[in-house]
Amino acid sequence: PPRLCAADSAVVRYMPSVTSPSAAEAMSQSSASLLRALRELKRVDEILEGCAAFWANMDGTVQKLAQMKEHTDCLINFAAKSKPLKERFEQRLSEYTNFWSSLERLCRQYCMDHQASAKRMYEVIREVSDAADVIDTANSA
């Protein structure tokens, strides 16, 4: 029965053989392993693209924060002088608080998603490395 290299979700299956595999069988197994590794590397690429998109969006978020800070500074200076401006200040402060809460939720979700993806990515890299070691060992025997 086939055994998995690292875990039940391993990328490359280890298939013990009773006799030495022929060169064609070894080449076929090697090709299949490399194709599986390529599929997993494409998944890693998709994860990294998602990370890049997050950070690109973060640039716009930081610019918006800078703009909000400028508006808040102006409102603080004038809010003390007028009741309507003070009400406007309270409204802007509420919007600012909501914005920060939303940003915090987004960042927390990013961190959780990144941790899960990074863990899986490192598992895949380890499995591919293990499979390459098995192939190298078989080829050198």
Quick rundown:
The chain is mainly α and 141 residues long.
Key phrases:
mainly alpha; two-stranded antiparallel sheet; rod-shaped; disordered N terminus; single chain; about 140 residues; 2 strands
Q: Could you characterize the architecture of this molecule?
A:
The chain is mainly α and 141 residues long. It has helices at 23-79, 83-140; strands spanning 3-4, 13-14. Helices cover 82% and strands 3% of the residues. Strands 1-2 form a two-stranded antiparallel ribbon. Helix 1 (23-79) packs antiparallel against helix 2 (83-140). The protein is rod-shaped and about 90 Å long.
The overall strand count is: 2
The proportion of residues forming helix, as a percent range, comes to over 70%
Shape: rod-shaped
Helix segment tally? 2
Secondary structure class reads mainly alpha
Strand order of the largest sheet: 1-2
Strand and helix map with partners:
Elements: E1 3-4, E2 13-14, H1 23-79, H2 83-140
Antiparallel strand pairs: 1-2
